[in-house]
Write a structure and sequence with these properties.
The chain is an all-alpha fold and 101 residues long. It has 2 domains: 1-54, no CATH class; 56-101. 90% of the residues lie in helices and 0% in strands. It has 3 helices and no strands. It has helices spanning 2-25, 28-52, 59-100. The longest helix has 42 residues, at 59-100. It starts with a helix and ends with a helix. 0% of the residues are buried.
């Protein structure tokens, strides 16, 4: 009985060894290309799982944050416009002062 089990182990090891040698003969780019559908399916599955965990904002939250962004942008636009006018006048005053001498 020990001989029968040993022969079964040898034949199983021999068949898996020949299959492994065939896989090693494939170029790396071919292995990547053949694995692409499996990787894509796994990526899409993981994306779906993650998207179910997202807490989406309500319509009122989106509206209020949009208004805050618009008002903040308008405030800084006016502020920087006034700073720009002030700098222009200051530089014009300095240049006018030095041209007289």
């Amino acid at each position: 009985m020990a001989i029968t089990q040993a022969s079964k182990l040898n034949t199983t090891a021999g068949s898996s060894g020949s299959g492994a040698s065939r896989e090693r003969e494939r170029p790396a780019w071919l292995e990547q290309w053949l694995n692409y559908p499996r990787q894509l399916r796994q990526f899409l599955h993981e994306t779906r799982v993650e998207m179910k965990q997202v807490t989406w904002p309500s319509q009122s939250e989106v509206l209020s944050t949009t208004i805050v962004v618009i008002l903040t942008t308008a405030f800084f636009a006016v502020f920087l416009w006034l700073v720009d006018i002030g700098c222009q006048r200051l530089i014009a005053l300095v240049l006018k002062t030095f041209r007289q001498h």
